[in-house]
Every structure is written in C-alpha cells, then in structure tokens.
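Final report, section 2: Outcomes. Of the targets proposed, UDP-N-acetylenolpyruvoylglucosamine reductase is the one most frequently requested by collaborating groups, and we therefore present its record in full.
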Amino acid sequence: MTNLKVEKNKDISNFLTLKTRVKAEYFFDAKTRQDLIAAKKYSLKNDLSMFLLGGGSNLAITKDALAGLTVKNDYRELKVLEDSPDSVIVSVSSGYPVTLLIAKSIATGWGGFEFHQGLPGTVGGAIYMNSKWTKPPTYFGDDLLYAYLIDEKAEVKKVDREYFQFAYDYSILQKTHEIVLEGIFQLGKADPKILREKAAFALDYRKKTQPYGIASSGCFFRNITEDQKNKLKLSTTSAGYLIDQAGLKGRTIGNFYVSPVHANFIINRGGGKSEDLVRLLNLIRGEVEKKFGVKLEEEVIVI
Ligand SMILES: Cc1cc2nc3c(=O)[nH]c(=O)nc-3n(C[C@H](O)[C@H](O)[C@H](O)COP(=O)(O)OP(=O)(O)OC[C@H]3O[C@@H](n4cnc5c(N)ncnc54)[C@H](O)[C@@H]3O)c2cc1C
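The predicted structure is given below as tokens.
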C-alpha cells in the first residue's frame, strides 16, 4: 500500500472533457480493483481527501488545484457471470468506458445500454449520476442487479439495486461518497441489428440536438421540476429552454460560451480561464432567475 505510485502536482486538464486547467496535489492512476482499494486506504492513512475521477465528463473544476488525492479510474474489466437463452448477467468494472460497453453489448446482442450511445465517461460515473437518455426515457441504473462498493472505511461491500435509490440524476452515492468497484447488470438478449438501429437513432438525435465532439461537460443545469413547470405555465421542464428564452444562446465570456445549438451546454473554445467560466455561470443563473424566478441547480458537479 505504501508503494502506491503517487504523482505530485499532476496536470489533470486532459482528463476533463471541459478542459479547465487544474492540477491535482496528489494523483494516482488506478488500474485494478486492488488499486482502488489501496488508494482509499492510502487516503485514510495519510489523512487526505480522495476524489475519484471517471471520464471527467460531468465535472466543472474551477479551482486551479485539487487538494488531496485524485484517483483516475482506469480499472477496466468485463466478465460474463451467467449466460441463459434470454439474458446474460455481466459484471462491469467501474472504470470501464461506457462507449466500449455499448459497443460490446450491441455486437454481442445484449440489450439495455443501446440508447446511451454517445454517453461519455465510465460505468462508475454513470452509476453515480444515474445518467439518462430522453428518447425513450432510459436510466443507466435501470438494469443494475447489484454492485460492489468501497465504503468510507475502505471496506468492500455488496449492495443491491434498491440501495442506490436511483432517481433523475441521482444515486445515494452522491451522499455516501462510496466508490463503485463493479456493477452487475442483467441484460436481455436481442438481435444486434435491432440494437444497432436503436443506438444509431439515439446518436443521430443527440448529434442533431447537442453540440458534439467539442469541449463541454454535457447539460450543465438540471431540468426544472414538473411543479415549477406548471407554476410557470410552460410546456417543458428543459433548463436549456429557460436559458435560451433568457436570451443567452451564444453568450460568451473569455473562451467559454453558451452553445448556440443547445443552450444548456457550455463550451470551452480552448484555453478558457476558470474565472470566466464562473462569471458565465453566474450570468446564466442571474438572467434565468430574473426572467422566470427560478434558481437553476447544477447537474454538473462544480468544484
Ligand atoms: C458531450 C457530453 C454528453 C453528455 N450526455 C449525457 C447524457 O446524455 N446523459 C447524462 O446523464 N449525462 C450526460 N453527460 C454527462 C456525463 O457524461 C455523465 O454524467 C457521465 O455518466 C459521467 O461519467 P464520468 O465517468 O465522466 O464521471 P466523472 O465526471 O468523472 O465524475 C462524476 C462524479 O461521479 C463520481 N464517480 C466517478 N466514478 C465513480 C465511481 N466508480 N464510484 C463512485 N463515484 C464515482 C466522481 O467522483 C464525480 O463525483 C454528457 C457529457 C458530455 C461531455
């Protein structure tokens, strides 16, 4: 455990899809289950806070430096636990890239993840966020049976799906700060051709409605609730709609701007400074509140 290969003052900007400039005080690249457990133990032993970085696609780190130990999750393993005529039970490690999981599922004929085609990040991040797709409404946690976690004392525990209390953009991990080691999913068998078509449909819709292939962290703010929508007599809960109606599409501060394609996406043109991002976020919050009386809440984790 003591010979954990920890780097100091590591530039982690390239691990963040929004590409903000950040250094990690201590950094460790975890490649196995044992690495993740050892990192947690190391952080406890050395009294360091620990931050687990998945694909870095749901983060807006506006600090120049992250204190404590930042662990990059590169634990990638996929195992078939049970294979029956109608379904399969697979164990997927938390550092496994979602794009790879979807590609593998489609090619093998495992249904369940195909509508998430185009979702960046890792399986662990997608469980933590219960990442979703809208057409049709699908959540990453839908087919989870159980999972293995590392708790706050660095003990491994097995929990079932109910433990996560999955909801829109929510799992209990956001409160407990436990770490997913593996998620065990039950997936129905399906024709790869049909899965491919469904995935292509989702990706096509994504590309038509969202900026694609540029530096962002996805939808920045959470959609408003049905109650708020009804009070405002709106036909949508979309945070992007509110930002658009507040006249903010294309609004730029420094190298950060509100996407003209989808107003809930904030883009870094390149080399954006964190203080400009913070100013742009404050502007968006302020203008939306002025126009609609609604305080937008972040979907992205702002640190
Ligand atoms: C272009 C683009 C499109 C996107 N589209 C969507 C979309 O359609 N739907 C959607 O819901 N989101 C979307 N997102 C947001 C983001 O991709 C998802 O939330 C994604 O699932 C986050 O995974 P990650 O591995 O990148 O997590 P990270 O951003 O690395 O981390 C997010 C949080 O999860 C925690 N975490 C990561 N791994 C673990 C683990 N193993 N155990 C416990 N906690 C962990 C981190 O500590 C952090 O608090 C999009 C983002 C981008 C950039």
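The chain has three domains: 7-73, 78-209, 226-302.
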